[in-house]
Design brief:
The protein is an alpha+beta fold. 48% of the residues lie in helices and 19% in strands. α4 packs across α6, α8 crosses α9 and α8 crosses α10. The chain is elongated, with a radius of gyration of 20 Å. It starts with a strand and ends with a helix. About 5% of the residues have low confidence.
């Protein structure tokens, strides 16, 4: 399977680009965000790709970042989300915004994308909310998870909140905010107490 293309940006359209790799032009379908990140015609570019093969079509999808490709693959596993809708969602939302929306069950944010109605948006966040924390996004959830070292008092506090029924991403965000408020060296019990208030709020 073609996983990545590095070459020269030859031509672009509304939702596609042609990447010239040593004289061979590859047509890749892209989100608006990826198209804007590829640069100017004639410049060198790299796209992470996903090859979709159906009964009567073969299509190469291109992404500026591997994180965007990971999210596309996840989105297209949801019933009703094909490649066109997947790219529309990634055009409307950054991977960070998408990750945070799924983690928070925020269907209204996902519904901002063209072709995504409230019902489909609800299905997307319901199916992906438990997977959101495992994927890169660069949003609030990603920052919170990255800020908590394994084995620390904060990590123990996250575990305590998870045991109380909070989602991992929600627990991590609450603990990160509590830690920022209390400062380094705060007692684990204090971190849990403040984080509980933030998670519940």
């Amino acid at each position: 399977m073609i996983a990545k293309l590095s070459g020269q940006l030859d031509e672009t359209g509304e939702d596609w680009a042609i990447v010239d790799v040593q004289g061979v032009g590859y047509l890749v379908h892209c989100s608006v965000r990826t198209l804007s990140a590829l640069g100017e015609i004639g410049e060198g570019c790299t796209v992470h790709t996903d090859l979709q093969v159906s009964e009567n079509d073969m299509r190469l999808l291109g992404f500026a970042e591997s994180a965007e490709r990971d999210w596309f693959r996840l989105l297209t596993q949801v019933q009703g989300v094909g490649s066109k809708v997947g790219l529309a969602i990634l055009s409307a939302l950054s991977t960070g915004e998408l990750r945070d929306a799924c983690a928070a069950g925020d269907a209204a944010t996902v519904a901002r994308a063209n072709g995504v109605g409230p019902k489909l948006a609800g299905r997307i966040v319901n199916e992906l909310k438990d997977k959101a924390g495992a994927l890169p996004g660069g949003g609030l959830a990603g920052a919170s998870m990255a800020a908590i070292p394994a084995g620390s008092a904060s990590a123990d506090a996250v575990s305590a909140l998870e045991n109380l029924g909070f989602k991992p991403v929600v627990a991590a965000q609450a603990v990160a905010r509590a830690q920022a408020e209390l400062g380094e060296g705060a007692a684990e019990g204090d971190v849990i107490r403040v984080a509980l208030k933030k998670a519940a709020g």
